[in-house]
Amino acid sequence: MKALLLENIHPLAVEILEDRGYDVELLGHSLDHDELVEKLQGVSLLGIRSNTHVSAEALDAAPDLKAVGCFCIGTNQIDHAAAAERGIAVFNAPYSNTRSVVELVIGEIIMLARRLAEKTEKMHAGVWDKSAKGSHEIRGRVLGIVGYGNIGTQLSNLAEAMGLSVIFYDTADRLAHGNAKRKRTLDALLAEADVVSIHVDGRPGNAGLFGAEQFAKMKPRSLFINASRGMVVDTEALRDHIVSGHIAGAALDVFPIEPKAQGDEFESPLKGLDNVILTPHVGGSTQEAQEEIGFFVATKLAGFHLQGRTELSVNLPAVGAPELHTGNRLGYLHDNLPGVLAEVNQLLADSGANVTGQYLATVRQQGYAVIDIDGDVPEEVVAKLAGSEHCQWVRTWHAPQD
């Protein structure tokens, strides 16, 4: 069994997969399409971060590939539909780097409010600029959070504990934490917030969410932070509003176009502006977060490949089957049609198999059944399911031997 891990994934992931019997190749950089296709030959598990893009064509060129793990939050660098169509599971780490991103944002709010980036730059240049001009406390200021998911809610809690008043806007129905207040529209939030922090996902509808119109509606001399997705923000429009003085400062950790490799040149219209903090997509880049991500995603990849478990898969039906300790397991990915599970159960009953557990989930056009059996999985059942017109794949697993 071969696993390919790209983009300098934490060594703990290598350790976990090697302990489970995989031959792991770890690379410190991303791969372009042709390089990826070449490397995927014979690979069962692929691990990437945000810079490697996995297209339908790449998946077609990888007949042995069973699962892809995104060792990050976002998964839009993978063609989800193509992976699902081929029965390839996709996993990510939706929670593991939450605290690290939130701590970065809290630090940036303080740095922007106190204009610390300018202060330290002048000190390194030998200029002593001891002045309170333009420097403010964050206590009592209004933080507007756009996107109130895992990161947005934890930011809300920490910000409130530090004396900020929190308002938020989300298109989904989210429960307010602490004393945070929901705003019914984005415009209402922009009109009230002293600091606007973006925490939305990478769905196509969020592209261009913040442009000239939205920046114009922000309060004069407010601050702007984006640690979510680069394509959300029109950086040219942001530059215009910083140069005009309407926005007093900004911090960005993500960009519409990012360098692919360490040391590559970075370009942005925001370079060289006062009170603008630019960081190279390091929101989740702490040792603690990367270790947790390495553990979480590697465990999910191995759990699927070795035991058929799909909990928290972002593209296949999510079946939370327990870890297999005894007996055997049958996994059946099939077309989501009425009567398929009844057909499976009839085949099992006719074969005399003793079913000890059964789990099913469906999503869109797919259904996934996981069935635990006390004893061997009957070969005739596997053969008949594999020959069904509704079968996408059928697999069996044995409980690990002591």
From TrEMBL:
<dbReference type="InterPro" id="IPR029752">
    <property type="entry name" value="D-isomer_DH_CS1"/>
</dbReference>
<dbReference type="GO" id="GO:0047545">
    <property type="term" value="F:(S)-2-hydroxyglutarate dehydrogenase activity"/>
</dbReference>
<dbReference type="Pfam" id="PF00389">
    <property type="entry name" value="2-Hacid_dh"/>
</dbReference>
<protein>
    <submittedName>
        <fullName>Phosphoglycerate dehydrogenase</fullName>
        <ecNumber>1.1.1.95</ecNumber>
    </submittedName>
</protein>
<keyword id="KW-0520">NAD</keyword>
<dbReference type="GO" id="GO:0004617">
    <property type="term" value="F:phosphoglycerate dehydrogenase activity"/>
</dbReference>
<dbReference type="GO" id="GO:0051287">
    <property type="term" value="F:NAD binding"/>
</dbReference>
<keyword id="KW-0560">Oxidoreductase</keyword>
<dbReference type="InterPro" id="IPR006140">
    <property type="entry name" value="D-isomer_DH_NAD-bd"/>
</dbReference>
<dbReference type="InterPro" id="IPR045865">
    <property type="entry name" value="ACT-like_dom_sf"/>
</dbReference>
<feature type="domain" description="Acetolactate synthase small subunit-like ACT">
    <location>
        <begin position="332"/>
        <end position="382"/>
    </location>
</feature>
<dbReference type="Pfam" id="PF02826">
    <property type="entry name" value="2-Hacid_dh_C"/>
</dbReference>
<dbReference type="InterPro" id="IPR050857">
    <property type="entry name" value="D-2-hydroxyacid_DH"/>
</dbReference>
<feature type="domain" description="D-isomer specific 2-hydroxyacid dehydrogenase NAD-binding">
    <location>
        <begin position="107"/>
        <end position="283"/>
    </location>
</feature>
<comment type="pathway">
    <text>Amino-acid biosynthesis.</text>
</comment>
<dbReference type="InterPro" id="IPR054480">
    <property type="entry name" value="AHAS_small-like_ACT"/>
</dbReference>
<feature type="domain" description="D-isomer specific 2-hydroxyacid dehydrogenase catalytic">
    <location>
        <begin position="4"/>
        <end position="311"/>
    </location>
</feature>
<comment type="similarity">
    <text>Belongs to the D-isomer specific 2-hydroxyacid dehydrogenase family.</text>
</comment>
<dbReference type="InterPro" id="IPR006139">
    <property type="entry name" value="D-isomer_2_OHA_DH_cat_dom"/>
</dbReference>
<dbReference type="InterPro" id="IPR036291">
    <property type="entry name" value="NAD(P)-bd_dom_sf"/>
</dbReference>
<keyword id="KW-0028">Amino-acid biosynthesis</keyword>
<dbReference type="Pfam" id="PF22629">
    <property type="entry name" value="ACT_AHAS_ss"/>
</dbReference>
<dbReference type="GO" id="GO:0006564">
    <property type="term" value="P:L-serine biosynthetic process"/>
</dbReference>
